[in-house]
Specification:
The protein is an alpha/beta fold and 134 residues long. 43% of the residues lie in helices and 16% in strands.
Length: 134
């Protein structure tokens, strides 16, 4: 099964967390694509940005499922886009939220994102179990 790992990658701690999650998913026999292993913006040219966008959306199209990292008060903008894109493609989306902070007093995360997912889980182990039923 090909997994698209939708996760923020802008700090060392985010990238280390993503590597840990990807390692656990791969150990469970899953193929994982994540943006931090793909080319980053170096020059900021329109051509370069378009290429990164195309690679990201192509990887989403080729995936069998999406695992979305949801930690934080609000879901990171790029992850939110990838969730919406995957939902429009009809891909199963599994949330991973290890952070106990909530979006609002009535929502764990924004309801538009939450309702596009099959579930939100608190550990990679739970995510792997959920992926087995996809």
């Amino acid at each position: 099964m090909r997994i698209f790992l939708a996760a923020p990658l802008f700090s060392e701690s985010e990238r280390e967390f993503n590597e840990k999650v990807a390692r656990e998913l791969r150990k469970a026999g899953l193929e994982v694509w994540m943006a931090q292993e793909a080319p980053f913006i170096k020059d900021g040219t329109d051509e370069e940005k378009r290429s990164i966008y195309e690679e990201d959306t192509t990887a989403l199209k080729k995936s069998d499922a999406v695992v979305a990292a949801l930690d934080g008060i609000d879901v990171e903008a790029g992850v939110a886009f990838e969730i919406g894109y995957a939902a429009a493609l009809g891909k199963p989306i599994i949330g991973l939220k290890t952070d106990y902070r909530t979006f609002s007093r009535i929502e764990n995360i924004n309801l538009m994102l939450e309702l596009s997912m099959r579930g939100i889980y608190g550990s990679t182990k739970e995510v792997i179990e959920a992926l087995r039923s996809v």
